[in-house]
UniProtKB/TrEMBL annotation, chain A:
Pfam family, one: BING4CT
Cited SUPFAM superfamilies: WD40 repeat-like
Compartment(s): Nucleus, Nucleolus
Protein name: BING4 C-terminal domain-containing protein
Domain of life per record: Eukaryota
Domain BING4 C-terminal: 374-452
Lineage: Eukaryota, Metazoa, Chordata, Tunicata, Ascidiacea
SMART domains (alphabetical): BING4CT, WD40
Keywords of this entry: Nucleus, Repeat, WD repeat
C-alpha cells in the first residue's frame, strides 16, 4: 500500500497568515515543503495591460501620513492589477485562424472553401441576401453582434436577428437612405434619410423625426456617451444626446460635404476626412478641430481607427493606403492599392477590411507590419457600398448594390465577450437591466477630449482663468457679488453699524440706477417734445361754458 | 550676628551671687581662668530684644566661630570638673546621645508648589498607563477597515467529525449506529495521525523489498498513464484531416474483426464513385430510362439508384434560404458565386411583384439615360508643380514624398483618361431632369440629390481597372471568373410621374465582356506611372500642401502674443501732421511680449494641434490639490485607478470600497479591555513621550539655572 499524506487538521495556533502577492491572506498549514510556494506568477506583459500610468517613488516624501497613504495606494493598485491579470484565466475561448497546407496562400482560399471546412454554425454565417431592387446597401451590426440593420439607398430598411435569421422589421421609407445606425440597443435605430434623420423602433415604427439633423450623410453612435453623430452635406457635424433628446453640439466644420466619418473608440473623438486630403478630429466641446492632419495629397475616400485607438488607416484617391499612429500623428506604413479604398473598417482584433470597387480585401494586423499580401480576398458582382465587422464573430458584413453578403473571416472577432458589457445571448430582462446600468454610467459629453485621461489631471489654472471659463460657459458676465462690509475694530462692526454701511451702499446703487433711468426718461421726453414740436399742432379752441354740451370725441 | 555668652559665665555669676562680696581681684582671676575678657563683657552681654531663632533670654548659646574662637567652651574644659567622679558611663551615654546628628522634619512646602509636584507625579503615572495603549491606537488608526465588535472569531465551517465530537451528548440512533460502525473501522482517518490503522499495518507488514517493488510498479503505471494521456493530447491537436481519416480507418479496422468487409465496402464505394452512377443524368441512367418504361425490373433498379443518389447528395447541414419575409421578393441565399455565370437579366425588376413600384406603371418615361461618367483622377508623382509654393510646404512635401518612396510599389493600375464627352452628356441630362422636375417640388429634390450623388460617385467610385495578365499573384480571385464583367452602376433611368412621385429603376444593360474592370499585373511600371501622373495633374489646381502650410502659419501668427507699444507720438517732439516717433523712443516704450511656449505640433509639419483651452472638461477637473498632497503628480497617480466593477474584479471592488468601520448588527460593542492591547512598538509614540518628558525636564532645568544665577548675584 502506498503511503498517503493526509492534511493535518488545522489548529488555530498553527495557522500562519502570510500575505501573498495579491495582498490576500492565505492560511498556510504546516506541511511538507511546497515546491511552488505562493500564488502562481503572472507574466509581466499581461499585467501591463491593466496598469495605469507609470509607477512612482514614495521614498522622498517627508510627510509620513502622506507617505503611508501613497504606499497603501500603491499596494492596493498592485493587488488590483494582479487580480485583473489573473482573471484572464477565465477567458477560455481562442480566436479563429486559417491553417493552410504547404504552398497554399490564405488569400487564394474562397469563402465556399472556408464555409465547407468550418463547423455547421460557422458555415451558416456565410450567406448572401440578394436584394437587387433597392440598391447599394449600408450595413450596421449592434454592439453585441446579434442584430443586423441594412439600409438600401432606395429606401429599403430591414432589421433582423441575423444569427437566427429572424426578421424584426422591414419597410421602405419612401425616401433615399444615406446611412443607418443602431442606437444603444437593438430596440432603436436611426436612419439618415434624404431630408431628415429619423429614429425607428425595432418594429419599424417611426419614433422621432429629427428635423434638426437634416441632409445627413453619415451617422455614428458613441455608446458610452449616448451620442448620435450626424455628418451633414453642408459641412455640419451634430451631436445628439439620445438619452435626453437634446442636441449637445452643432459644429460648422467649414470643410464641405462630410462623407468620410469614423470614431476613435478609445476616446470618443470623431474623425472626418476631407476633399483636401486632411483628417480632422473633433470633440463636441470645441468649435475648431482638435487636430488637423494632412494625410494625403488627394481627396480622402475612407478612414478607420482600430479598437485600441492607436492606429488610423486612411485611403485616398491617390490609391494609397496609409497607417498612422494616432498618438504621434506619424505615418507608419504606406502601400499601394488598386484603387483608393472606398471603405475601411477595423475588426476587434485589428484586421483591416478594405473594399476596392467590387473587391473586398482583409489584411491581417496591418498596423504592426505592412502587409505584402492580403489575408483574404473576395470578389463581389457589384462595388461594395459598406463594410462592417460583426463584433464577437468572425464575420464581415458587406453591403453592395445587389444586396448583402456575410463573409467569414477567421480570427476577426474577439472570442471572449464580457456579458456585463455586451452579451450576444442576453435575454430581454438582462437587456433592460443593462440599459439602466448603462444610463447610470453614461459619460458626459464634456469629458470627450483627445487625451482620455485629462479628466484625471489637475488643472492648475489661475482664479482669473477659471472666472473667464465660467463666463464663457454661461455666455454672460455674472453680477458682482453682494457687498460684504469688511470687519472694523473698536465696535464699528456691530451688527447695526454693518447694516448701516450696507444700506449706504445699497442706496447709492439705487440712486445711481434711478439717476440713469431719469436721464434716460429725460432724454426720451426731450426727444418726444422735439417730435411734438415738429408736429404741427391744432390751435386749441377757446374755452366756453357751452363746450360741455358738445359731443365728446373719443 | 549676636554674640553668644560663654557657658562659664553663668556658673561664675552664680558663684558671685552666692558669696556676696568677693574681691575684684579674685573675680578677675576667675574671669581670666575662664578666659573671659572683661572689656568685652559689657559689649557681649546683651539681652535679646527681638525675636530670633535662638530662644535664650540672655543670649546664651553658640558663639559664631570667627570672633569667639578663642573663647569657645570646649568639652575638656567642662570635663575637668568630672575628675574624680565615678559612674561616668551614664554621662557618656548622655553625651553620645547629644552628639548624634539631629533629625528634623523639613518645613511643609507651600500649597501651589506641593500641588504642582503632585500633578507632575500623577501625570507621569497616568501617561505610563495610557501609553500601553499606544500600539493599539496607532494600529486602529492606520487600519483600512475596522469591524466591531473587535476580536471576532473568524467564521469557520466545522467538519462532520468536529461537529459530531462537539455535539457528542445527544446523538440520534442513526448517528449512534454510524459512529459505532466508524469507530471500529480501520480505514478511517485519524485526527492525530497521518495514516489510518489499516495503512499503518500494511506498511509494517510489507518488507522493504516488497514495498520498493510495489512502489516501482505503481510508478510505472502512473508513467504509462501519463504517456498515454500526452499521446492522446498530441494526436488531438493535429489538424490534418488526412491523418485523422487514416487514424479513423485504422481504429475501425482494429475495432471490427471483419477487416475484409471494410475493404470490400471501400472498394464498392470507389467503384460507385468512378462509374458516375451516383450522378443524376448520367449516361447509364439515360440508357436505363428508355428501358424502364417497359421493364419493371429496370425501373426498380433506377429508383434504387435515384434513392442512393439522394442519399449521397445529402449534406450534413443543408443551409436553408434566408427569407426575410413573405412580402420581399424571395431571394434565396446563394453560395460560391465565384464561378457562377451571373445572369444580369435577373436584375430587371419584377414590377408586378413589388407593391411599392406598382404605382409607376403609368409613368411616362423621361428618357434621360445617363452615361457612365467616369471622372478619373490624374496624379503626378513628380513634385515640380509644387516647387513654387511657400517655403514651409517644401518640408511637408519631403515628408509626403518620403512616404511615397517608402510605399510598396508592387501594384500598378491603369486608369482610363477622362471622358469629357461623358461628362457633357451627364450635365445635359441633369439639366433636363432639373427642368422637368421643376414643376413638382417633391421630385425635384430627389432628382437633384440623386444627380449630385451620382456625380459624386462618378468622381470617386468609378475607377476602372484592367487586367492584362491572368497569372496575377496579387488578386487571384479577381481573375477566376471566365468572363470579367463590366459594371456600370451609375446608369440611371429616371421616370417622372405627373403626380409628382419620382422613382428610379436601375437598369443594367451595358454588360459586356469589355476589359474595363480588370486588374493589371504588369511588369513595366511605366504605364502605371503615366496614369498616376494624370491623376495628380487633374488635382494640380488645388495645391493642398501650400494651402495647409499657409493655414498653419496663419494660425501660429494669430496665436502669438503681441508687443505693446506705449510710445506717444508728439510727446517731447515737434507736433504736426506726419510726425514719426523716433527710433529711440519706440525702442524705449515697446514692451516685448514673452515668446509663447512651444506648440505641440512644432515638429510636425503636416499636423495642426489646437492649443485652445477646453473649458468644458475644465469644469470637471480638480483645480486645488487636497491637503496632505503637495505634489500634483502624486495626487494624479492616486486617482487614476478606477474603482468600479467595470474595470476591476469583484473582490478588488469589494476591498476598494470597503467602509472604514462596519458593525455587526445587534452585537454589543463593549469597550476594549486590557487583553486586546497591542504590544507598544510604535516609534512615533515613544518619540512623543520622550519629547514630553524632555519638555518637562527642560522646564525644571531652566528653573535651576535661574536659581543659580540668583546665587551668583548674591541674592538669597
Amino acid at each position: 500500500m502506498a503511503g498517503r499524506y493526509y492534511e493535518k487538521r488545522k489548529l488555530s495556533s498553527e495557522i500562519k497568515k502570510n500575505e501573498d502577492e495579491d495582498g490576500l491572506s492565505v492560511s498556510e498549514v504546516a506541511q511538507p515543503e511546497d515546491p511552488f510556494k505562493g500564488s502562481a506568477p503572472i507574466p509581466e506583459e499581461r499585467k501591463s495591460l491593466y496598469k495605469r500610468g507609470k509607477e512612482f517613488p514614495v521614498d522622498g516624501i517627508k510627510n509620513k501620513k502622506l507617505k503611508g497613504f501613497l504606499r497603501n495606494t500603491k499596494k492596493r493598485d498592485k493587488a488590483a492589477v494582479n487580480q485583473a491579470a489573473r482573471y484572464e484565466l477565465l477567458l477560455t475561448e481562442e480566436p479563429g485562424y486559417i491553417e493552410t497546407e504547404e504552398g497554399e496562400a490564405t488569400w487564394e482560399i474562397k469563402q465556399r472553401e472556408i464555409a465547407d471546412a468550418a463547423d455547421i454554425t460557422s458555415a451558416s454565417k456565410y450567406f448572401e441576401l440578394r436584394l437587387d431592387q433597392f440598391g447599394p446597401y449600408s450595413v450596421d451590426y449592434t454592439r453585441n453582434g446579434r442584430h443586423l440593420l441594412i439600409g438600401g439607398r432606395r429606401g429599403h430598411v430591414a432589421a433582423f436577428d441575423w444569427m437566427a435569421k429572424k426578421p424584426m422589421c422591414e419597410m421602405n421609407v419612401m425616401e433615399a437612405v444615406n446611412d443607418v445606425k443602431w442606437l444603444h440597443t437593438e430596440n432603436m435605430f436611426a436612419v439618415a434619410q434624404h431630408r431628415w434623420t429619423y429614429i425607428y423602433d425595432n418594429q419599424g415604427i417611426e419614433l422621432h423625426c429629427l428635423k434638426r439633423l437634416d441632409q445627413t450623410l453619415k451617422l455614428d453612435f458613441l455608446p458610452y456617451h449616448f451620442l448620435l453623430l450626424a455628418a451633414n452635406a453642408r459641412g455640419f457635424l451634430q451631436y445628439l444626446d439620445i438619452s435626453q433628446g437634446q442636441i449637445v453640439s452643432t459644429i460648422n466644420t467649414k470643410c464641405g460635404r462630410l462623407e468620410v466619418l469614423c470614431q476613435n473608440p478609445a476616446n470618443a473623438v470623431v474623425l472626418l476626412g476631407h476633399y483636401n486630403g486632411t483628417v480632422t478630429m473633433w470633440s463636441p466641446n470645441q468649435k475648431k478641430p482638435l487636430v488637423k492632419m494632412l494625410s494625403h495629397k488627394t481627396a480622402l475616400r475612407s478612414i478607420a481607427v482600430d479598437q485600441t485607438g492607436n492606429y488610423l488607416a486612411t485611403s485616398a484617391q491617390d490609391r494609397k493606403l496609409k497607417i498612422f499612429d494616432v498618438r504621434t500623428f506619424k505615418s507608419l506604413h504606406t502601400w499601394s492599392v488598386p484603387a483608393g479604398a472606398s471603405h475601411l473598417k477595423f475588426s476587434q482584433r485589428g484586421f483591416l477590411g478594405a473594399s476596392f470597387q467590387n473587391v473586398v480585401e482583409i489584411y491581417n494586423n496591418p498596423c504592426i507590419q505592412p502587409p505584402t499580401n492580403p489575408y483574404l480576398t473576395h470578389k463581389l458582382k457589384f462595388p461594395a457600398s459598406d463594410l462592417d465587422f460583426c463584433p464577437y464573430e468572425d464575420v464581415l458584413g458587406v453591403g453592395c448594390a445587389d444586396g448583402f453578403v456575410s463573409l467569414l473571416v477567421p480570427g476577426a472577432g474577439e472570442p471572449n465577450y464580457d456579458s456585463f458589457e455586451s452579451n450576444p445571448y442576453r435575454s430581454k430582462k438582462q437587456r433592460k437591466e443593462w440599459e439602466v446600468r448603462a444610463l447610470l454610467e453614461k459619460i458626459q459629453p464634456d469629458m470627450i477630449s483627445l487625451d482620455p485621461f485629462q479628466i484625471a489631471r489637475v488643472d492648475m489654472a489661475t482664479a482669473e482663468q477659471l472666472q473667464k471659463d465660467k463666463e464663457e460657459r454661461l455666455g454672460f458676465k455674472q453680477e458682482s457679488p453682494k457687498f460684504e462690509p469688511r470687519f472694523k475694530n473698536k465696535g464699528r462692526s456691530k451688527s447695526g453699524n454693518v447694516e448701516k454701511r450696507k444700506r449706504k451702499v445699497r442706496n447709492e446703487e439705487l440712486r445711481k440706477k434711478i439717476r440713469s433711468e431719469a436721464e434716460k426718461n429725460n432724454a426720451n421726453e426731450a426727444a418726444e417734445s422735439q417730435m411734438e414740436a415738429n408736429v404741427i399742432t391744432k390751435p386749441l379752441e377757446p374755452k366756453s361754458a357751452l363746450n360741455r354740451f358738445k359731443k365728446k370725441t373719443k | 550676628m549676636t554674640k553668644l555668652e560663654p557657658a562659664g559665665k553663668l556658673l561664675a555669676s552664680d558663684d558671685t551671687d552666692s558669696e556676696g562680696e568677693v574681691s575684684d581681684f579674685a573675680h578677675e582671676t576667675l574671669l581670666k581662668s575662664l578666659g573671659v575678657d572683661k572689656d568685652k563683657k559689657e559689649e557681649t552681654s546683651k539681652q535679646r530684644t527681638e525675636s530670633v531663632q535662638e530662644v535664650s533670654v540672655f543670649s546664651l548659646g553658640q558663639k559664631s566661630y570667627d570672633d569667639t574662637h578663642a573663647g569657645k567652651v570646649h568639652l575638656h574644659q567642662l570635663i575637668n570638673s568630672l575628675e574624680g567622679k565615678s559612674n561616668i558611663n551614664i554621662l557618656k551615654k548622655q553625651i553620645n546621645r547629644v552628639k548624634r546628628p539631629t533629625q528634623h522634619l523639613n518645613a511643609p512646602l507651600s500649597k501651589p508648589v506641593a500641588e504642582r509636584l503632585q500633578r507632575k507625579v500623577e501625570y507621569e503615572k497616568a501617561s505610563t498607563t495610557v501609553s500601553h495603549w499606544d500600539g493599539t491606537v496607532q494600529k486602529n488608526r492606520k487600519a483600512d477597515h475596522l469591524s466591531f465588535p473587535l476580536n471576532q472569531k473568524p467564521l469557520q465551517i466545522k467538519t462532520v467529525d468536529e461537529f459530531l465530537f462537539h455535539k457528542s451528548k445527544k446523538l440520534t440512533p442513526l448517528e449512534e449506529e454510524i459512529q459505532a460502525l466508524m469507530n471500529g473501522n480501520k480505514c478511517l482517518e485519524r485526527k492525530d495521525h497521518d495514516l489510518s490503522v489499516l495503512e499503518e499495518e500494511a506498511l509494517t507488514t510489507l518488507s522493504l523489498e516488497e514495498a520498493r517493488a510495489r512502489r516501482a510498479e505503481l510508478q510505472k503505471h502512473r508513467a504509462l498513464l501519463s504517456y498515454h494521456e500526452a499521446k492522446n493530447r498530441r494526436q488531438n491537436k493535429i489538424k490534418s484531416k488526412k491523418y485523422h481519416r487514416m487514424m479513423r480507418k485504422r481504429k475501425m479496422k482494429e475495432d471490427s474483426p471483419k477487416a475484409l468487409d471494410i475493404k470490400l465496402a471501400d472498394q464498392q464505394r470507389a467503384e460507385e464513385r468512378a462509374s458516375l452512377r451516383h450522378r443524376a443524368g448520367s449516361k447509364w441512367e439515360k440508357g436505363r430510362k428508355l428501358i424502364a418504361k417497359h421493364d419493371e425490373k429496370t425501373k426498380f433498379e433506377l429508383d434504387a439508384q435515384k434513392q442512393k443518389h439522394e442519399e449521397l447528395m445529402v449534406r450534413p447541414e443543408p443551409m436553408g434560404s434566408v427569407d426575410l419575409s413573405a412580402e420581399t421578393p424571395t431571394i434565396p441565399a446563394t453560395f460560391g458565386n465565384d464561378g457562377d455565370a451571373f445572369d444580369h437579366a435577373v436584375l430587371k425588376l419584377p414590377v408586378e411583384n413589388n407593391p411599392w413600384l406598382s404605382c409607376t406603371s403609368e409613368t411616362t418615361k423621361n428618357d434621360s439615360k445617363l452615361d457612365n461618367t467616369s471622372v478619373t483622377a490624374k496624379c503626378d508623382s513628380g513634385d515640380e508643380l509644387l516647387c513654387d509654393n511657400a517655403a514651409k510646404s517644401s518640408s511637408l512635401m519631403t515628408w509626403l514624398s518620403q512616404e511615397e518612396n517608402n510605399s510598396v510599389e508592387s501594384m500598378k493600375t491603369v486608369v482610363p483618361a477622362i471622358d469629357s464627352e461623358a461628362v457633357k452628356k451627364f450635365k445635359e441630362a441633369f439639366s433636363k431632369i432639373k427642368s422637368s422636375g421643376d414643376g413638382e417640388d417633391g421630385s425635384y429634390d430627389f432628382i437633384q440629390e440623386r444627380a449630385e450623388n451620382s456625380e459624386h460617385e462618378a468622381n470617386s467610385e468609378s475607377l476602372k481597372f484592367k487586367t492584362l495578365d491572368k497569372g496575377d499573384h496579387k488578386f487571384p480571385n479577381l481573375n477566376t471568373g471566365d468572363s470579367p464583367e463590366e459594371i456600370s452602376c451609375t446608369n440611371l433611368k429616371t421616370k417622372s410621374n405627373s403626380t409628382g412621385s419620382t422613382l428610379f429603376k436601375p437598369e443594367i444593360e451595358n454588360i459586356s465582356t469589355s476589359s474595363d474592370l480588370k486588374f493589371v499585373h504588369d511588369d513595366n511600371n511605366s504605364l502605371g506611372d503615366e496614369q498616376r501622373m494624370t491623376i495628380e495633374q487633374a488635382f494640380a489646381d488645388d495645391d493642398v500642401l501650400a494651402e495647409f502650410s499657409f493655414e498653419k502659419n496663419e494660425l501660429i501668427e494669430g496665436s502669438k502674443p503681441k508687443d505693446i507699444d506705449l510710445s506717444l507720438p508728439g510727446w517731447g517732439e515737434w507736433g504736426g501732421t506726419g510726425v514719426v516717433p523716433s527710433k529711440r523712443k519706440k525702442r524705449k516704450f515697446l514692451t516685448k511680449a514673452k515668446p509663447p511656449p512651444p506648440r505641440k505640433d512644432v515638429n510636425l509639419d503636416h499636423v495642426i494641434i489646437t492649443e485652445d483651452r477646453d473649458i468644458q472638461i475644465a469644469k470637471h477637473q480638480v483645480h486645488d490639490i487636497p491637503f496632505p498632497f503637495v505634489n500634483s503628480d502624486h495626487f494624479e497617480k492616486t486617482i487614476v485607478r478606477p474603482v468600479g466593477s467595470t474595470w476591476n474584479t469583484p473582490s478588488t471592488v469589494k476591498s476598494l470600497t470597503n467602509p472604514e468601520v462596519s458593525t455587526l448588527l445587534g452585537a454589543i460593542i463593549s469597550p476594549m479591555d486590557s487583553e486586546s492591547k497591542e504590544p507598544n512598538k510604535t516609534k512615533n509614540k515613544n518619540n512623543f513621550k520622550k519629547q514630553k518628558v524632555g519638555a518637562h525636564t527642560s522646564r525644571s532645568s531652566r528653573k535651576q539655572n535661574r536659581l543659580q544665577k540668583l546665587k551668583i548675584l548674591g541674592i538669597d
